[in-house]
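hiii so um. not sure if this is the right channel but i have a protein structure encoded as C-alpha cells and i wanna go backwards to a sequence. like what aa goes where. can anyone help
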C-alpha cells in the first residue's frame, strides 16, 4: 500500500557512472538532535546529496511509554533525510477509541510518500495494537511496492521484506528494500536472509539499497574483520558493503541497552558504492526519548 502525500523535493538522477569525490571525504561532526525543530525546517544547501535513514520506531512507543508521532517527525525532518526505512511499524493502529493511522500521519507531517508491508502478525502494546511490519517514506514518488513474506521456522515470528520503487530521475528508479530479521538466533537470521537475497538478485545491476534492523551485532573496532557476524559475511559475499564500516563517523551504537550495540544497517550494492560519502548514527535527547533504537543515516553523492 502506498499514498501520494504532498509535495516532492527536487529530483536528481543516480546512474551507473562513477562520480569522483572532489578533495576526498570530509570528516563531519556527529549529528545531535536535542530539541524539537518546527516541522518543515531544513537548513541544507546540499542539493546534490541524497540522505537515507533507517530507523526502528519501536511499535510507535517512546521510552516514556507514549506514542508521539510529532516527535518522530521532528527527528526525521531534522535529519534532512530524503528516504526513510522504518521497522516495527504498526499499521493501522487499533485503540479502545477506534482506528488510527500513525504511519499516514507521519508521512503527512513530513510531506512524504509512503509504502507499508506487514509481516503477518499482530502486536499488542499498552493501549494500542495492530499489524506490524516495515515501511518506507520518501520525498520522491513511490511508483510501485511489493511485500514478501520470509520463510518461517517453527516457533519464530513472521518477518517480511518490503520493496519500494522510487522515481528519482528520468534514467532509472531507485529500489529500496526494508526488512527486520529475527531478534533471537543468528541461524534463524541466516535462514531469513536467504529469502531476502533471492528477490535482490534481479536488481544486481540497478541502483538499490537494503536497510533495516538485522538484529546482528555489527563490527566496530580493530577486530572487526575477525568478529564480523555470519549475517554480515553473507551479505559481503553477495556484493554488499556495510555503509557504516565503509564510511562510518562517530558513535556506532544504534541500540543503546547496557552498552550501545549496532544492529541497524544500510547495505550498499556494488553499483552504488562509489556514491557513498558518509554514514552516522543520530543521537541527542529527543532521539533517546523517541524509541529504543537510534536512527542510522547514510549520505550519497548524486548529480
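sure thing!! here u go:
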Amino acid at each position: 500500500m502506498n499514498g501520494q502525500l504532498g509535495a516532492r523535493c527536487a529530483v536528481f538522477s543516480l546512474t551507473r557512472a562513477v562520480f569522483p569525490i572532489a578533495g576526498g571525504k570530509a570528516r563531519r561532526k556527529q549529528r545531535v538532535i536535542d530539541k524539537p525543530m518546527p516541522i518543515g525546517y531544513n537548513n541544507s544547501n546540499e542539493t546534490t546529496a541524497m540522505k537515507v535513514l533507517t530507523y526502528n520506531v519501536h511499535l510507535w512507543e517512546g521510552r516514556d511509554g507514549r506514542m508521539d508521532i510529532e516527535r518522530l517527525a521532528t527527528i526525521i525532518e531534522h535529519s534532512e533525510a530524503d528516504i526513510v526505512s522504518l521497522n516495527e511499524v504498526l499499521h493501522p493502529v487499533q485503540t479502545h477509541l477506534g482506528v488510527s493511522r500513525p504511519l499516514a500521519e507521519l508521512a503527512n507531517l513530513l510531506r512524504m510518500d509512503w509504502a507499508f508491508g506487514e509481516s503477518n502478525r499482530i502486536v499488542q502494546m499498552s493501549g494500542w495494537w495492530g499489524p506490524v511490519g516495515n515501511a518506507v517514506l520518501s520525498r520522491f514518488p513511490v511508483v510501485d511496492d511489493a511485500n514478501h513474506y520470509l520463510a518461517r521456522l517453527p516457533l519464530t515470528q513472521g518477518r517480511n521484506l518490503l520493496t519500494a520503487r522510487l522515481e528519482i530521475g528520468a534514467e532509472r528508479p531507485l529500489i529500496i528494500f526494508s526488512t527486520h530479521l529475527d531478534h533471537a538466533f543468528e541461524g534463524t537470521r541466516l535462514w531469513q536472509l536467504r529469502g531476502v537475497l533471492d528477490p535482490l538478485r534481479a536488481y544486481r545491476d540497478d541502483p538499490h539499497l537494503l536497510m533495516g534492523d538485522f538484529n546482528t551485532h555489527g563490527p566496530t573496532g580493530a577486530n572487526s574483520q575477525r568478529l564480523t557476524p555470519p549475517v554480515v559475511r553473507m551479505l559481503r559475499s553477495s556484493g554488499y558493503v556495510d555503509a557504516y564500516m565503509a564510511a562510518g563517523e562517530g558513535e556506532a551504537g544504534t541500540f543503546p541497552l547496557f552498552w550501545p550495540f549496532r544492529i541497524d544497517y544500510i547495505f550498499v550494492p556494488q553499483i552504488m558504492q562509489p556514491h557513498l560519502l558518509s554514514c552516522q548514527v543520530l543521537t541527542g535527547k529527543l532521539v533517546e526519548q523517541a524509541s529504543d533504537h537510534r536512527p542510522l543515516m547514510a549520505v550519497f553523492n548524486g548529480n
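oh and The chain has one domain: 2-6+24-301.
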